[in-house]
């Protein structure tokens, strides 16, 4: 019994027999188009229900996203006019997938909801589309609302578990695992869903469960090993990830670029240099961008800025991730001016900054006290680049202003935010107010934090300390008493010792 979001079980979908066809729905053509139609072609290109999925796939694979989306839309219109859509499930599923790959998710969802009787493959396609566009929670909710209408096969279960992994939904993944064990042949199920299960269990620290699933999988398949290594690395279990990598090599399984990306997430400087040397022997120069981006991230994490910059200079085809990692490296290590220089260099190279670039450079300005530069960049990204600021980016600006002692400007900025400020925003103001011993603004931030996250005892402790530092003993006692009144527990401090 598979329970996803409180749905009880699956039942086999009703099988409907198609009505007899007295005449073909489409005129058969001996020749098929060699290239996807453009918006101007619409119905001029001959096709039938059997060729439409292939044509849609070809259109979605166009080099230009804009032209690909227009071609898919034209094919959609032609298919509706000729009756192929939504009556043909294979064509409809291909249409959903094509819209997803061209970035037009709303159209993909509309195409799915127009299906009178979605098949298992239809659900697999739409859930994959939602997950690909960063909406795994919505994918799980969609499936839960329609669960009794479809019996999952191995592919749909694999897609569900991947959505659970992305959404960190552990219990629904366990339910999907149990259903798959009972209803799908073990070899087929684990070959399809095994990597996602291994990664999910490892990420949640379930080492023994991840190992049990792994034992059912092909030990010679590098994908299985990548899932184990990547799962442990994402759970910050560096020792387990590194041991798994060593075991893979001892068994003679040849790793690929994704193996190196996975293990680099668990490396310290010494082991990272070993992987770096192996990468140079196996992959040559910086042609595999994703691989060298991961290497830069490793060097950034351990504070080796010069090594990260050397790797960056050797990447043959830098993408936006390459620039973001390098800017983030400077930001985290206190090189604010260098980070700003690279933002300008990025634009000069014709690379369009994204929201990650926006956040990273604002963090660099916060860490280095570059207040005016940070405000100017915020204005540029919003007004010129047209990026919509996120809560995290707004919190960066509040932190930037408040840390510089410009608390009134920070409060004015909060009042003008396009969304309701959350605990991160008010917490930034409270922390900066404590730094500058500003009781007035600290009180404003604290009153908001009590409403936003009343269960966080740390805010009460911080406010009490601010009052005590200002000599306001009675106010400090009053806030401390509030902790006892609502039965909050102050987070206990922890320390660690390394025995050498």
Folded structure, characterized:
- This protein is an all-alpha fold.
- The protein has helices spanning 52-60, 65-82, 89-101, 105-113, 120-132, 136-146, 154-167, 170-183, 186-203, 207-216, 222-234, 238-250, 257-264, 269-283, 289-301, 305-314, 320-332, 336-348, 355-368, 371-383, 391-403, 407-415, 423-435, 439-452, 457-469, 473-485.
- Helix 5 packs parallel to helix 7 (154-167) and helix 22 (407-415) runs antiparallel to helix 23.
- The model is unreliable at 5-45 and 494-500 (pLDDT under 50).
Task: Spell out the key features of this protein.
500 residues, disordered C terminus, 66% helix, globular, 26 helices, mainly alpha
Which SSEs are present, and which pair or pack?
Blueprint: H1 52-60, H2 65-82, H3 89-101, H4 105-113, H5 120-132, H6 136-146, H7 154-167, H8 170-183, H9 186-203, H10 207-216, H11 222-234, H12 238-250, H13 257-264, H14 269-283, H15 289-301, H16 305-314, H17 320-332, H18 336-348, H19 355-368, H20 371-383, H21 391-403, H22 407-415, H23 423-435, H24 439-452, H25 457-469, H26 473-485
Helix pairs in contact: 1-2, 1-3, 3-4, 3-5, 4-5, 5-6, 5-7, 6-7, 7-8, 7-9, 8-9, 9-10, 9-11, 10-11, 11-12, 11-13, 13-14, 13-15, 15-16, 15-17, 16-17, 17-18, 17-19, 18-19, 19-20, 19-21, 21-22, 21-23, 22-23, 23-24, 23-25, 24-25, 25-26
